[in-house]
Amino acid sequence: MRYGATMPVVSEERFDSGFLWKDYMQCSSKNLERFNENYQRTALDPKDTEFLASITTPVKVLILAEDWCGDVVQTLPVIVRMLECSSFIEYRIFPRDENLDIMDQYLTDGSKAIPYLVFMDATLNQIARWGPRPDDCQAIMRDNKGKLPMDEIYRHIRSWYGEYGNGPLVCEIRALLERIT
Predict the structure, then answer these.
(1) What are phi and psi of 95, to 5 degrees?
(2) What is the chain's Cα-based Rg?
(3) Would the pTM of this model clear 0.85, i.e. be above it?
(4) Which residues 6+ apart lie within 8 Å of 113 measured at CB?
(5) Exposed/middle/buried for 107, CB within 10 Å: 0-12, 13-18, 19+?
């Protein structure tokens, strides 16, 4: 997670051109069953829902994603469920591969890792960012890239999600929102 305001990431028109969940699902062709299953079964802790619903600071969230990415399939439904809890949070999903000019501003250790979230104020100035995985899960990639084959690293990442689920993700996004709202 990184914090600090910068110049506007995108224009208002470009932000508005991004997808909401329903539209993103209609434009996606891969992993639809898993996306929808993860979205439907996401149940947030009532304390998290209450906190998210209590946010009154306008926040815009630009999400870079792709439907073929396992991390996106795992986490995007939960992220969207969280953001939907607040009427003061507006989000848009952008396909990474069609928006490389944005993605290139948010590389993770030199790679275009997704999902990536850019949190902005009402005038689209960046105030925080998150991605592409919960910190402990990202450590698996960071500590093993170049040492283990990628398929083995992804197997470890899937095992991590199997063990910890999306609890760490919810905690990190909530902590970020607590700091900026």
Answers:
(1) -65, 125
(2) 16
(3) yes
(4) 71, 107, 131, 132, 133, 141
(5) exposed
